[in-house]
Specification:
The protein is of the alpha/beta class and 493 residues long. The chain has helices spanning 3-8, 56-61, 87-98, 117-130, 159-171, 183-187, 209-212, 215-225, 239-250, 298-312, 318-326, 354-367, 385-397, 413-424, 437-446, 476-492; strands at 14-15, 28-30, 40-43, 66-69, 80-83, 107-112, 135-139, 142-145, 148-150, 176-180, 196-201, 229-235, 255-259, 266-274, 277-284, 287-293, 336-337, 345-349, 372-376, 400-403, 431-433, 453-457, 464-467, 470-473.
């Protein structure tokens, strides 16, 4: 694309075009100097740890033709320099222009909330795939474009990456994209220039307060997203969801509600629940429909309910939605029962907040016959107040708690575990600290008792442990399967 075409569509404060010709070709935009080539625009963003302005010289050395910055003191004769007020916003705008506004060519369903985002995007993906639609996913488990996988560093990546992946979806004739929308992404302008057909709100519980500082600021970050969507779908059983529904309605946003408890536009009624799944009813256009899903727990009903409504509003026939859900085995790493020959149930789940852990434990509580065992930790350099709260939840529901490492970063993982233990102690002293997760899994499975339900919480499909500033490869599923195999061998003699 000619750079002058981009200039025509943006606002800026200062430019040094008297030095360099604006009639040049650019095909890439990035805020990472390591990704720059001689067809690139480099946008200098002031980050939390590093300031991109300090890497302008490296970007030019690697061939960047255009530099966007917030300070004209960096201007020189080696590239086109453009001064703007906010480089985060301009990165989003330029990315959308450069990749030809791909979000306008997709049916994009964005999902936000503390819990349930990943599950909903993957349930939607299954429904659409089952009904012969090509799809894309962007979220915690990476990017999937027509089932081809790409890894990401953030739940919602930077704006230029978002626009690039959506452009790839358009190039592959994909019509539908399901995206997890984090609160960080709204505050940091990553989704500014994306057009969402449907926005889903799941719930809001204590999380990310290291970033937002208060629950009110966290709520406002979530709310901001819904002024970008054509249709909002809100869980009003959540207290913040109920508030959001009324505030959006007052502001003229096209909004509908869903629930299990309160009266809503789409209210589900649970008829049967067990460890293998749930049957529930839902009234749509004055007709009652029965749905069967293969994962237990009320949280599964909420996630499925949102997915049904979004699919139905995307013109998928309700009977086709039913059939697809009956054939859905669940989301990898979300209340995933690991197969084994052992006389116990081993569950892998991503729960890493007090509310997320409680929802999973409530589900286990409904079906448990033997002991309830949980293993989990808490992230270092993150909201420390939730550590004891998670311990309280675990202590209230579980017979025994194993406390372990989960992305300690620069903190001592044992200290984190001791803070979690303060919550467990409010109910009992049945806990053990085993810092190494693989070692903890081996110990738990080696010492299980018949009919135990063992929940391995927090890590799930996340492929690393964040230790200091490194991401050390880690695979919870592989470690669990290995521990099961070792136990099965030892039992066979």
């Amino acid at each position: 694309m000619k750079f002058e075409k981009i200039l025509e569509k943006i606002s800026y404060e200062k430019i040094n075009l008297q030095i360099v010709n604006k009639n040049i070709d650019v095909y890439k935009v990035t805020n990472d100097s390591r990704e720059v080539n001689n067809e690139s625009i480099f946008v200098a963003i002031k980050g939390f740890k590093k300031d991109g302005h300090e890497f302008i010289h490296k970007a030019i050395e690697k061939g960047a033709k255009v530099i966007f910055c917030e300070n004209d003191e960096y201007f020189n004769n080696n590239a086109i320099f453009v001064k703007v007020k906010n480089t985060r916003k301009i990165l989003s705008k330029i990315s959308s222009i450069l990749y030809e506004e791909p979000s306008r060519k997709l049916n994009i369903i964005g999902v936000t909330g503390t819990n349930g985002k990943t599950s909903i995007t993957y349930i939607l993906n299954h429904i659409f795939n089952y009904n012969s639609y090509k799809t894309g996913i962007i979220g915690t488990m990476g990017v999937s474009i027509d089932n081809e996988k790409f890894t990401l560093n953030n739940t919602t990546p930077e704006s230029h990456q978002l626009q690039y992946f959506m452009k790839e979806m358009v190039n592959k004739n994909i019509d539908n994209c399901f995206m997890e929308v984090s609160s960080h992404s709204t505050i940091l302008n990553r989704i500014n220039d994306i057009y969402f057909n449907i926005g889903i709100f799941t719930n809001l519980t204590k999380d990310h307060l290291d970033f937002h500082k208060t629950m009110e600021e966290y709520y406002k970050a979530k709310k901001k997203f819904f002024y970008k969507v054509e249709n909002a779908l809100i869980n009003i059983d959540d207290k913040y969801g109920e508030r959001l529904y009324h505030e959006l309605k007052e502001d003229g946003v096209n909004v509908v509600s869903y629930s299990i408890k309160k009266n809503s536009d789409y209210k589900a009624s649970i008829k049967d629940i067990n460890i293998n799944g749930i049957i529930f009813e839902l009234k749509i256009e004055n007709k009652i429909h029965e749905f069967k899903i293969n994962t237990p727990g009320k949280f599964s009903v909420y996630n499925t309910l949102a997915s049904i409504i979004a699919s139905y509003n995307s013109n998928i026939d309700i009977e086709d939605i039913k059939k697809s859900l009956e054939n859905f085995k669940g989301v990898k790493g979300r209340f995933e029962i690991i197969p084994s020959e052992l006389d116990c149930t081993i569950i892998l789940d991503f729960a890493h907040t007090p509310d997320g852990l409680e929802k999973v434990m409530e589900t286990i509580d409904e079906v448990a016959v033997g002991r309830k065992i949980v293993m989990f930790g808490a992230g270092g350099e993150r909201d420390i107040s939730r550590r004891a709260l998670m311990g309280e939840v675990a202590g209230r529901y579980c017979d025994f708690c194993y406390l372990t490492s989960d992305n300690p970063r620069y903190e001592n993982p044992k200290d984190i575990c001791e803070e979690i233990a303060q919550g467990v102690k409010k109910h009992h002293n049945n806990y053990k600290i085993i810092i190494d997760r693989a070692e903890a899994i081996n110990y738990i499975i080696d010492n299980y008792k018949p009919k135990d339900i063992i929940l391995l919480a927090g890590k799930s499909t996340e492929p690393y442990q964040a230790i200091e500033d490194k991401k050390v490869p880690y695979d919870e599923r592989a470690n669990t399967i290995k521990a099961i195999e070792n136990k099965e061998k030892s039992m066979k003699g």
